Amino acid sequence: MTEKVYYFDSHIEECEAVVLSCEKTKNGYDVVLDRTIIFPEGGGQLSDTGYIDDVRVLYAREDGDIIVHECESEIEKGKKVRVRFDKGRRLDMTQQHSGEHILSGTANRLFQATNVGFHMAEDYSTIDLDIFLDEDKIKQLEIEANRAVYKNIPVDIRIVDEAEYETIELRKKTKGLKGEIRVVRYEGVDSCTCCGTHCMSTGEVGTIKITSSIKYKGGTRIWFLCGERAIRHYIETQKIVDTIARRFSVKHEDVVSAVVRQGDELNDCKAQLKRKSTELINYRTAELLSSCEAINGKKCIVSVEKDMGMADLKQLAEKICSSEKSVAVIFSVSGDSVFYQLMRSEGVKLSMRELCNVVNVTLSGKGGGRDEYAQGSSKNIAGIEDSALQILNYLRNVIKNA
Fold it and tell me: Which residues 6+ apart lie within 8 Å of 298 measured at CB?
């Protein structure tokens, strides 16, 4: 059995212990001590890291009534050692865990919401509540939780037996607990059974920031940050706002309206561009069809366009093939690449997949598709006009001899 020194005081930084066992594993050594201040992962909280003497502890886990320390090096069985945790990580984990209690207790007091899930990651934490909280309620929750932080309410951690446990009123009361039961209270804020490490007072949490919330399984999932994590979030958010404000030459309070205004202007530009693209495609369709003579009742269109995107290429090919019975091979030179779209009208018995293979060979390109439609691209833009002429002659011969 491993004595959990952190159970009563999360701020004890070191303790002496005796090594009960040390076993070689695939990634290091599993070390068991008679007592430890290193918290193992559990109850939604991540594991501490730290040292046993000078040996690095990478992770700790519970295995029944013992705590296994996953270490980098071997430690002699029976050796008397000093155990210490990484202070920065312990403070971070403790702030997130205590912040979760404050948020859960406050949500229960304000809205009668029940915490049905808690998860802590290396860079965020989440709480799942059983009812939906809208934006206004989330804002109220954040404000009230931070007011609890400002009050600097001390933590009360007690170990009770089963009989006393039954008489205690708690926000969260787990059924079926036996033996010694650990109860954690922040008076007027939260009370529940808990195995994790806790700040000595709510003030040590520093700041609580709810970063996001969504409707989840009929309730609410909340993402939050506490302590230094919250401060870093404020700093990064401020940098983003500063950058946008400078970009638009506006005050911070006008950033949102500036972004919305530019979004509206961009949507107008996209609509105008779409109309002009459609007009251009209609014009090019008429131009290409009028300059081409039919062979066996079909028109062979091979054209090289400039800086036309794949979507516009496809639209042009579709317009040509829907206007008259045709086969269209449309190229577009853009930068150092050439893109191509191949399409046939309904009723034309010619495979675009096979024709695309011919274009691939001619241009050393890559592409493919179906019998009705194919596409590809190439970096071989030199002599594209001559290549297009070769493909046109090949296509005319195929149609003529079909």
Answer: 325, 326, 327, 345, 348, 399
Residue 322 and residue 340: Cα distance in Å, rounded?
18
CATH topology of domain 3-85: Elongation Factor Tu (Ef-tu); domain 3 (2.40.30)
Domain positions in the chain are 3-85, 91-240, 273-400
Q: Which residue has the tokens 């009812």?
A: 131
CB atoms inside a 10 Å sphere around CB 263: 10
CATH topology of domain 91-240: Threonyl-tRNA Synthetase; Chain A, domain 2 (3.30.980)
**What is d(CA 180, CA 19) in angstroms, rounded to the nearest whole number?**
25
> pLDDT by residue (tens digit) across 6-37?
887 788 889 999 999 999 998 899 999 999 99
Among 386, 382, 317, 312, which Cα is nearest to 352's?
A: 317
Round to whole Å and give the CA distance between 191 and 214.
Answer: 26
The residues that bridge with 223 in the sheet, in sequence order, are: 126, 212
Hey, what are 54's tokens?
């000078």
Residue 184 to residue 206: CA distance in whole angstroms: 19
Query: For the segment 139-175, what is each residue's pLDDT rounded down to a tens digit?
Result: 999 999 999 999 999 999 888 888 888 888 888 877 7
Residue 398 structure tokens: 């195929």
- Predicted local confidence at residue 199, as pLDDT: 92
pTM: 0.73
CATH number of the domain at 273-400, please? 3.10.310.40
Contact between 239 and 249 (Cβ < 8 Å):
no
